[in-house]
User: What shape does this take?
Amino acid sequence: MSYNSTHVMQLPRKVTIGCGILQNCGLLIKGNYPFLKSLAIITGPNIRDSVSKSIEESMLEHGFDLEWIIAKEATFQFGDEVTTQLNKQKSALIIGLGGGRCIDLGKLVASRLKVPFISIPTSASHDGISSPFVSLKGNERPYSIMTETPTEIIGDLEIIANAPRRLLASGCGDLIAKTTAVKDWELARDFNNEYYGEYAAKLAYLGSRMIIDISNSISTIQTATQLTRTIVEGLISSGVAAGIAGSSRPCSGSEHLFSHALEYIAKGHCGLHGERVGIGTIIMSKLHGLDWQEIRESLRKIGAPVTGKAINVDKDQMIDALLLARTLRPERYTILSKNKYDKKDFEKVIVETGILD
Assistant: This one.
């Protein structure tokens, strides 16, 4: 894509962040959709058990007909089933309530039904909160596809801050990954004549530097809510950067290809998305000639895994994932495209970065 080419920007229309706001979600949604009646919430069983009462009361109070859909599995096939069901019920709005699985399913279904989608995260584990991309199983390509950007985001910090700390650390891994994603995008501009959005790149990169700053001052952060707000806002901004770019380029590079490849090879038994891309960022930073020690130390301070062992992955799986990563999207130019690394090269880099410790 040349600099004169046209691309479409998809941005959330409204973002509401605060403590205890989910109990007023009916009022928040009614303000934007005063004539809407029928909506569906896609969520997990544990999430519904913990927050359904307050949500239902608020929705009913403001005249909404509510359908609950339990996300049994994070697959395109299940997304097809839900789409068919909600199409028959004429659902006019879809809400994804929960973690990545529920939000991605919600985005997929809403996009197929051509109705608005509202993202309500209950954890801060990745930037899918606000991006137009989904990553589900069952597709022939093990990486994210583009759908539609959420029209609205409601982030209740009280709920998100009480999620397991591991999920927050995973979100930090997804943010710090923008370090190498942006460098890969720069390579694509310089060596593959791709469109490069300066503003989107800087916005995404800002999130990665924020995580490094947080890791250096984490002992002085006074409350969990304070830390959570900063990370949630960073993840939302990251998704917005992708919307501005019209692609996942500012947020997803060789480190994400590694993550997708590793998940495929290990059959899903390899940690959370943000944990994998965090480790991938250490590796790709080394290949790019960046300060990989800073990346590794920042993740360690935050509590994210920095070794294959920590996510139940061995050396052979790690190397196989690196070899597979560059074949997943041949059209996406990254450091793995520029340099034709072999098995010995990858073994050397994972040893030197301590990934096998």
The mean pLDDT is 91. The radius of gyration is 20 Å. The chain has two domains: 14-163, 166-352. Strands lie at 14-18, 38-43, 65-70, 93-98, 117-121, 133-134, 145-146, 152-156.
